[in-house]
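PROTEIN DESIGN WORKSHEET
SECTION A - STRUCTURE
LENGTH: 107
TOKENS:
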């Protein structure tokens, strides 16, 4: 999603792999424990004004989630569906379903 909106990505020296990665949720002002498995990251300096950073890694401050302003689009760079594992990010599925319902009402 970031690439589609003009941002750039770079290969990480060591990717984020495994469980128990703390991620700061900037919208809810809390920390979520996540499961991750990726080797690329969105560059902070490449984010345009229509993209808001919603989540960031507490290990290295890399971007872990974004949303597109004035659109029902959001994404995270971790596995909210992970099971067994932490369930701190289950709310994302409810948010996704609500987004679909709201878009359907507009049609």
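SECTION B - SEQUENCE
RESIDUE ASSIGNMENT:
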């Amino acid at each position: 999603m970031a690439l589609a909106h003009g941002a750039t990505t770079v290969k990480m020296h060591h990717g984020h792999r495994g469980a128990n990665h703390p991620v700061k949720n900037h919208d809810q002002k809390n920390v979520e424990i996540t499961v991750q498995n990726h080797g690329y990251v969105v560059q902070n300096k490449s984010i345009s004004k229509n993209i808001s950073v919603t989540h960031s890694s507490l290990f290295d401050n890399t971007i872990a989630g974004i949303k597109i302003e004035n659109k029902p689009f959001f994404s995270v760079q971790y596995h909210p569906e992970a099971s067994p594992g932490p369930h701190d990010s289950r709310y994302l599925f409810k948010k996704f379903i609500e987004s679909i319902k709201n878009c359907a009402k507009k049609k």
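SECTION C - NOTES
Residues 91-106 form the longest helix (16 residues).
The longest strand covers residues 9-25.
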